[in-house]
Amino acid sequence: EGCADVVAADPDRFHFFPWATPHDPDKCLDFLERRADVISGLKFHPSLERVRVDDPLFRPFLEYAERRRLPVVIHAGRWQEMSSWKICLEVAERHPDANIITAHMGGDTPDLQQECSLAMQERALPNAYLGTESIREYYSLRIALDRLGPERILFGSDYPLGWPAAYLAVFDGAKPTEEERRLVLGENMLRLIGQRRA
Length: 198
Fold this sequence. Notes:
This protein is α/β, with parallel strands linked by helices. It has a single domain (2-193), classed as Metal-dependent hydrolases (TIM Barrel). The chain is 49% helix and 9% strand. It contains ten helices and five strands, in the order H-H-E-H-H-E-H-H-E-H-E-H-E-H-H. The chain has helices at 2-9, 25-34, 46-49, 59-68, 80-83, 85-94, 110-123, 138-148, 164-173, 178-193; strands at residues 42-44, 71-74, 99-102, 128-131, 153-154. It is globular, with a radius of gyration of 16 Å. The mean pLDDT is 95.
């Protein structure tokens, strides 16, 4: 409730992506419906929840995101059985009206990041995006920009675990053009948030 109140007080400055937990779906969905006016997207963390995002427990949240046309940030990491980028892309395929942002560009190692951007290039899902949270390898980011174009990538820092200035430096290491900088650092997310439905 506290975060929702902060956003309600200054909606032009803040956007709210509440963490959707499948362990108490009724309570969580009630909150999402009550505070829909301040919710810009959702966050799923399958590793910490110990539930894969393709599990039926997440379905009500994905349907909510589709109905409201909300972006969904999904953690992808090294625990491939639980939080693989492959699961994120499968969810994007099954839920075409939800914009799926695969966090950490698909994982926390260059091989996972590059496999993910290649698969996204090959599958060409119009609702699949990459977030740059905690990416340390500027070359993986450059490869993703070249494969997917800047329209498919959104800057993220993983704050408070990561410091935004550090990940801006990584982004700068990828030698982005002015257009890439504009899109990745803000315009892409504003475009996705702008698609929200009441």
